């Protein structure tokens, strides 16, 4: 038998925790910097040249309200398109909260699937009975029109003001904290509606 002392585990464990915490802190700082840089940035969302998928339903919230505000949600090929379609009902919740304030919220979902999956994405959209209009960006038009957008997917969903400038960042459908912040700040955000 060997009389070696076993390596103490605690210092290694603490080192790993320290390294993970520093990575998380660095990530949070990068996200914070990106957030500050993105707020107030003008976003171009001209949907010409994109494939529009639409299913109109009776009773769907139309532009009956006098004011309108746009929420862009961009998703690249790394994200699950069927998941986005199945979450469309959650957008109705957000839309209804805005409607209570007399504002029509227009979510614009822009997805950029790989070229070989475009037909598949279209089929999934119609099978899913998604209630939102979705735009398929086959040539990366949205990103080319908005080169200042962050690379992090968490920062590619945002609410725009009358001048198409970013006033709120985050996907309320995928993040409950973002949803909570959006609903809590709804009164102040409504003043930015067209």
Query: Percent range for helical residues?
Result: 40-55%
Q: So what's the overall shape?
A: globular
Class computed from helices, strands and strand pairing: alpha/beta
Give, in order, the helices and strands.
HEEHHEHEHEEHH
CATH level-two architecture of the largest domain: 3-Layer(aba) Sandwich
CATH topology of the largest domain: Glutaredoxin
What is the β-strand count?
6
Write the CATH homologous superfamily of the largest domain.
Glutaredoxin
User: Strand order of the main beta sheet, please?
Assistant: 1-4-3-2-5-6
Mean pLDDT level: 78
Could you describe the largest sheet, including whether it forms a barrel?
6 strands, mixed
Which percent band covers the strand fraction?
15-25%
Radius of gyration: 21 Å
Number of domains: 2
Summarize the entry for a quick read.
The protein has seven helices and six strands.
Protein model, in words:
With 194 residues, the protein is of the alpha/beta class. It has 2 domains: 30 residues; 149 residues, Glutaredoxin, CATH 3.40.30. It is 41% helix and 16% strand. It is built from 7 helices and 6 strands; from the N terminus they run αββααβαβαββαα. Strands 1-4-3-2-5-6 form a 6-stranded mixed β-sheet, covered by helices on one side. Helix 4 links the parallel strand 3 and strand 4. The longest helix has 30 residues. The N and C termini lie far apart (79 Å). About 9% of the residues have low confidence.
Record the SSE blueprint.
Blueprint: H1 9-38, E1 51-53, E2 67-75, H2 81-86, H3 88-100, E3 103-111, H4 118-128, E4 134-136, H5 141-145, E5 157-160, E6 166-169, H6 176-184, H7 186-190
Parallel strand pairs: 2-3, 3-4
Antiparallel strand pairs: 1-4, 2-5, 5-6
């Amino acid at each position: 038998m060997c009389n070696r002392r076993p390596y103490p585990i605690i210092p290694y464990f603490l080192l790993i925790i320290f390294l993970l915490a520093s990575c998380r802190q660095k990530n949070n700082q990068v996200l914070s910097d990106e957030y500050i840089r993105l707020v107030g940035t003008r976003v171009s969302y001209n949907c010409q040249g994109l494939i529009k998928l639409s299913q109109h339903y009776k009773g769907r919230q139309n532009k009956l309200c006098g004011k309108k505000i746009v929420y862009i949600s961009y998703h690249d090929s790394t994200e699950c398109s069927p998941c986005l379609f199945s979450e469309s009902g959650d957008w109705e919740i957000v839309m209804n909260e805005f409607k209570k304030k007399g504002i029509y919220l227009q979510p614009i979902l822009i997805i950029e699937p790989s070229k070989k999956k475009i037909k598949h994405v279209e089929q999934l959209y119609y099978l899913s009975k998604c209630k939102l209009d979705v735009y398929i960006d086959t040539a990366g038009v949205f990103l080319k029109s908005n080169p200042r957008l962050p690379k992090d997917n968490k920062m590619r969903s945002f609410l725009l003001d009358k001048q198409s400038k970013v006033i709120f960042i985050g996907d309320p459908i995928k993040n409950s904290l973002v949803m909570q912040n959006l609903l809590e700040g709804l009164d102040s955000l409504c003043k930015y509606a067209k």
